[in-house]
Amino acid sequence: MQMPAPDAGVLARRAAITARLREAVPGAVIDDPAETRAYECDALSAYRCPPLAVVLPRTTEEVAAVLRICHAERVPVVPRGAGTSLAGGSMPTADAVVVGLARMNAVLETNLDDRFIRVQAGRTNLSVSGAVDGAGFFYAPDPSSQLACAIGGNVGMNSGGAHCLKYGVTTNNLLGVTLVTMAGEVVELGGPMGEAAGLDLLGVVCGSEGQLGIVTEASLRILPKPAGARPVLVGFDASETAGACVAAIIRAGILPVAIEFMDRPCIRATEAFAGAGYPDCEALLIIEVEGTPPEIDEQLRLIRAIAEGFAPVEFRESRSEDESRRIWLGRKSAFGAMGQINDYMCLDGTIPVSALPQVLAGIARLSGEYGLDVANVFHAGDGNMHPLILYNANKPGDLERCEALGAEILRLCVAAGGCLTGEHGVGVEKRELMLAQFTPTDLDAQMRVKDVFDPQWLLNAAKVFPLAVSAPRREGMRNAA
Amino acid sequence: MQPETEAELADMIRAAREPLSPLGGGSRLHPGEGQGLRLDLSALTGVVLYEPAALTLVVRAGTPLAEIQTLLAAEGQMLAFEPDARPGSTIGGVASANASGARRVQAGACRDAMLGLRFVTGQGEVIANGGRVMKNVTGYDLVKLLAGARGRLGVLTEVALKTAPRPQTRAVLALPGLGAAQAIPALTAALTGPYDVSGAAWLPGQGALIRVEGLAGSVAIRRAALTQRLAGFGPVDEVADWPQTVPQPGPVPDARGDLWRIICRPSEAPALLAALPPPEALDWGGALIWLRLPPGEAPALPVWSGHATRVSGAQPLSLPAPDPIVARINASLRERFDPRAILASDGPCRQISQMSS
Fold first, then answer.
1. What ipTM did this prediction achieve?
2. d(CA A193, CA A178)
3. What is the pTM of this model?
4. Residues in domain FAD-binding PCMH-type (chain B) (predicted)?
5. Which of A227, A290, B13, B191 is the most buried (most CB within 10 A)?
6. Of residues B142, B264, B268, nearest to A204 (C-beta)
């Protein structure tokens, strides 16, 4: 992974910079190399680089003070929520100060009548729902890492989850943020209903991968919890049939809260790992619906009638809490199961659901060509694929081959009318593939937004855009300094 | 000027030497807008792609909203964000205005249904952003930035939208005895329970109105549960139809006065209503207040957490005055996407900071 060379001037001023930071935010600065090592990577752990220093502020004012210093000293800054990015979104460079949100986890306001909660951005996704669960509410976006991942990171990456077919992703559930710009200015974006006068700045900040500012607080839409939920498991003897069944359900006007897909390699691995009792078949769907018991029955009757038209090898309807848990068990342990048998790389290209059979066939062909197995588990309702490429990290050349196969699969997704990433973000991982999806002018339009928020390109700068494409801006700013 | 293709539009914008007013049907203009040379986008029409099984529609921006609604209805689908019908209204205009109706409380705004777009900047560059898939975090979300930007950053040429199944059944409950402020607690009770409410409004003479939609059995269950939940607020009736909740603009000038759109937290609405003349409508559980004021008058409002915009009348005005940093970011973005100020769709008022003066 190529990263820009660290700024020698910044490295030389390390002691002076950390001293200024310490003075501004006492007790919040880490610069001992043994300790900064803990921040050398995120969940894209193949790539590591310890930062210059780490600051763990407690308040918006402290974040602003840190950014004012870094801005004045022209020090690159990398924002970090919980470090669970799969795309290297919070991977540092040697000349960067990591601003971590770990100490900012307070609930600032809970307003059930107006259906929102305001939290500090370091609070974990799951604990947002936890804070309102007793009152009968929940926060809908549910990325797989929800136990660990921070709301600030969710906003940065516009995180999704298994239930976005019905509830949308972060941007659809975000009402406002407090944003600190690289210059240390504090702005409030959004408002009631998520809107403010003028341009939708909240909308473009969400998903900007920490390149426009550091989100320190967020107002989130909370929803009344449904009366209940129940999954069914449907097995098929061909992936194409499973895909056709998904299309038929949606076409019939039924919108389940989740439709998850697993193929045979994935079913076998999870079965060996978790023993969820899945049928041994080519493909299975987990379809979940919500409501009161009669409402659930009504939806499942329709889903069963549609599924039977596709001759399923199994249709298993949960009859109890325990059966529901077992149906979800395999899906939820899929990544762990794959990790047990192999190193793997998880992609998240998204495709039009109609292109599913064609893309699955293409992945199988590429898998053969590269000699690496690929297991598929994904959110079928919204076309968000998660092909897992299995490789051996200890085998020289295997990681590179895996990355090359991953790039081919993502190009296949784009060619089918889809995109490189549905919910993980571009980060450093998919940066160089951006020209497969966008023209240089398309990317320039996006970079103009960064020019406005961070004219010196100091904030998480070597991400999202191909290095060569962002170089004139990054280097121009540095040379102008 | 009436371009028939995106390339023609880009040429026209590049060649322009005076401010243009990009218009679809021109049915959603705000005060001060539309004063430039008319750039008529109504010939940029056509469905590029419609895949009902993927809930995806891609259309050119000048396509009439009415045509799209007919097309979707034939497949048992709809635009979930429920844009109000207006004569001549085009999908590009709807997207540029982020026009969203009552179902926003359940299904989100227009911007939430927008999957991708193509647009032409003030320099005549053609830009694509987003795509046609439901989940997409590839690069910055310029779709949201352009949605509701009222043509100030670029002229939309194509919009990709998420469609939704039309609900099989609908029930509308009414509490006709409630005044505007009294309606807020009833609407809040409906929206904070597990009823999946798809409309929560108030109209003069009709009282509080609450809508549930879905499969027949489910609607019956939720209607019964809601009727019980709302009984304490007053007599609950059922009415056949969900009314139009977005007040329509009148002639210019309008003897009835200027129309104002006020966004607030529902819990703030009673205090705002107490300071105002009777509203024309409430929507989104009270988070949206529609108000008519004498021409040129501004509402006297206590400090609150939302904003108010004059949407008809002579002079643009938005309250409170925008934060200076936010105003600077707005102005800089316009400068980056339209450095020659060709897309001055708000006439001489080039900067948002001036809009409030």
1. 0.96
2. 16
3. 0.96
4. 1-166
5. B13
6. B142
